[in-house]
Design brief:
It is built from five helices and 35 strands. The protein is mostly beta strands. The radius of gyration is 24 Å and the shape is globular.
Length: 673
């Protein structure tokens, strides 16, 4: 189903109630019903085209100015104009976020939101959780995701388990695909580009409407010889390139059975193959594969003259990762490891719009149920100087959840929202989480104040509880969920300037949270235990200037103080300071120039000397990445593209021992039809 359908502005007649009732009766035989698909937003990355209606912390469509939280949306226009091909490209400059690529393109990339661990980010694809249960801590690899079929990306920062369940301690990333349907039977685009490092990429997207049927189909391919992920400074650098080959195919189909009932099916498959290195050494024959398939089938209906929208969705997410390492001069060991997982989920979601009552207006409720079953399969095969090692493991766990939330506007000035959720996962205690937010419209000053408080948890992944690897790791079935609580408070002000009513926008947010029962690796026992605590606090500042209707300038600064509360030491890979500068300049109609500069401050990390010696923990230097994209619409339906990445050829290491991709220039064209 679509990630969310806004409540209609006017009531609509439900002309197919019997069909819906039959659907719900059939769904009652499923193991359980489940939560709705949702996505939140506060401000579009595109300054000029911020959406009028977004989905709030209560999982309900809401006008932008009523949202009591700080959320970033990267829309399709920004993805196209800035040349974002992968999720790593798109997320690098998000306020409150740190994107760390531990290796070449396609290799593991982690996202740290508001100082929380990288496994504390829940990733949704059209509202369906897609974190990989078979990986360590249930991580999601941001390095392999392609964007040709993506309409927008919504990043919710702060504790959000009261809305989404496990793993949403640092926040949620919802990847929303392009909706099926168009005003005619066939519309779409074709793009092809190529350039540095023997890079060749392309995609095709088609959508349309034929009678009661809407469809969308996307194909994408990316191939590059890549760059050497081992830094030039390291003695083990063999100047060996680490390439990437990635493909994506997706299809969505929606059938309108009547004005009130719709069904939809989706199938999305993505595969990538990439080179890897063993820090601090180059490794010419170490490769990885990452595959993901998501299938979804759902139905949606409007009841009570359109005031109640209900959905039933079935989905299955399948991951498979393989890693192969053959012997070479630097490392005589061999390994063949594979990790596979399946997550099957049933969702029942509801949105109800309530009538106005006294000072309370625009009130709405959301509620739903969820059932999920996760399975993982691990196969480890290795041969080293210590002898052969083999291990097979299969594990499974189930979870159920119920959630409810609501929102209302009081006295035409105060917006309140609340949400709560109960998760029950087999093997440990239930988790009850909640979130409460409020926003005050101080329109006399052009200012909106907002505050929110929430709790969150992270259930141990199947790998944490039962996993194994070739280095001797063994899971711990006795692990408890990690838990957190935190708040944020902020203000957004819009001021007239440059002769324009929307000349300046300034947003400030302060946040703070604590995490307890952190799951950490015990080197002595070669397993994981609940032994950690973390104190997280920071601030985000965003400034947007629009001195001219064709000029937009934006800056986003993030301060992060993330500490291990036991040792009072900074957590790894969380820079204290990060600054992103962006602009969109349209000097003449159809020509868009989009520069980007990301400055990352020093951060604590595990260090390696230039000779390749392990130095333990210490402070790693920061760096600067400069990008520039230009697109020129030479005529209707024809756009030329020029992209420059890492223009200064910076040797910045986002993770010590792994270099950023080198300078590149890409030329291409996009044809619309």
């Amino acid at each position: 189903m679509p990630p969310h359908r806004p409540l209609p502005p006017e009531p609509r007649r439900a002309r197919a109630v019997p069909a819906l009732l039959a659907l719900l009766v059939a769904g009652a035989s499923l193991p359980a019903l489940a939560e709705g698909i949702a996505a939140e937003s506060i401000a579009a990355e595109s300054i000029a085209e911020a959406p009028d209606v977004v989905v709030t912390a209560t999982r309900l469509p809401t006008p932008l100015e009523r949202v009591p939280a700080a959320v970033t949306v990267i829309d399709r226009r920004a993805i196209a104009e800035r040349g974002h091909v992968t999720l790593v490209d798109a997320l690098r400059a998000v306020p409150g976020a740190v994107l760390v690529q531990s290796g070449p393109p396609g290799a593991n990339a982690s996202l740290f939101l508001r100082g929380a661990n990288s496994d504390h980010v829940l990733v949704l694809l059209d509202g369906v959780p897609v974190n990989d249960p078979a990986t360590s801590k249930g991580l999601f690899n941001f390095g392999s995701e392609l964007l040709a079929d993506v309409e927008r990306i919504e990043i919710v920062r702060g504790p959000a388990s009261g809305l989404y369940g496990s793993a949403a301690i640092g926040g949620v990333v919802n990847i929303i695909t392009r909706a099926p349907g168009a005003a005619r039977p066939l519309a779409g685009e074709v793009e092809i580009a190529g350039g540095s490092a023997r890079t060749l990429r392309g995609h095709g997207h088609a959508r349309g409407t034929v009678g009661p049927v809407d469809y969308a189909v996307t194909l994408q391919s990316l191939s590059t010889a890549g760059w050497n992920a081992t830094p030039r400074r390291l003695a083990g650098n063999l100047r060996e390139r680490d390439g990437l080959s990635a493909q994506l195919g997706s299809a969505r189909l929606r059938v309108r059975l009547s004005d009130a009932v719709r069904i939809e099916a989706m199938l999305r498959a993505r595969a990538s193959r990439f080179g890897l290195d063993n820090v601090p050494l180059d490794d010419p024959n170490f490769t990885g594969e990452n595959r993901h398939v998501l299938a979804r089938l759902g139905a949606e209906a409007d009841l009570l003259a359109g005031a109640w929208t209900t959905r039933l969705v079935l989905s299955q997410s399948r991951h498979r990762q393989r890693f192969r390492n053959a012997p070479d001069a630097a490392d005589p060991a061999t390994s063949r490891d594979s990790f596979a997982s399946v997550r099957t989920e049933t969702i029942w979601a509801n949105e109800v719009r309530l009538p106005d009552l006294g000072p309370a207006r625009l009130a709405a409720l959301s509620f739903g149920l969820q059932h999920a079953a996760e399975e993982s399969e691990t196969r480890i095969r290795s041969l080293s100087i210590f002898g052969p090692f083999a291990q097979d493991l299969d594990a499974r766990q189930e979870s159920r959840a119920a959630y409810a939330g609501g929102q209302a506007r009081l006295f035409d000035r105060i917006d309140i929202s609340a949400g709560a959720r109960l998760d029950a996962t087999r093997g440990f205690d239930d988790a009850f989480t909640w979130r409460l937010g409020a926003a005050y419209d101080w329109h006399e000053l052009g200012t909106r104040l907002h505050a929110a408080y929430g709790t969150a948890f992270k259930a141990p992944s199947l790998f944490d509880r039962f996993g194994v690897d070739s280095f001797g790791f063994r899971g711990n079935p006795a692990l408890r969920p990690e838990r957190s609580r935190g708040f944020e408070i902020g203000a957004t002000t819009r001021m007239a300037a440059f002769g324009r009513a929307d000349g300046v926008r300034l947003a400030l947010t302060y946040w703070q949270s604590r995490v307890e029962d952190l799951i950490q690796f015990d080197f002595a026992a070669s397993t994981t235990r609940n032994v950690g605590r973390a104190r997280l606090r920071g601030a985000e500042a965003e400034l947007a200037l629009r001195p001219h209707e064709r000029v937009e300038i934006a800056a986003a600064y993030t301060y992060t103080d993330a500490r291990d509360a036991v040792r009072d030491a900074r957590l790894l890979r969380r820079p204290e300071h990060q600054l992103a500068l962006r602009a969109r300049i349209e000097p003449v109609a159809g020509l868009v120039i989009a520069p980007e500069l990301v400055l990352v401050g020093r951060f604590r990390d595990v260090l390696y000397s230039d000779a390749g010696a392990f130095l333990g923990e210490g402070m790693a230097r920061g760096g600067v990445l400069a990008n520039l994209t230009a697109s020129w619409r030479v005529q209707e339906g024809v756009t030329l593209i020029l992209e420059g990445r890492n223009l200064t050829d910076s040797d910045f290491e986002p993770a010590n021992g792994f270099a950023s991709p080198g300078r590149s220039v890409i030329l291409g064209t996009r044809l619309g039809f």
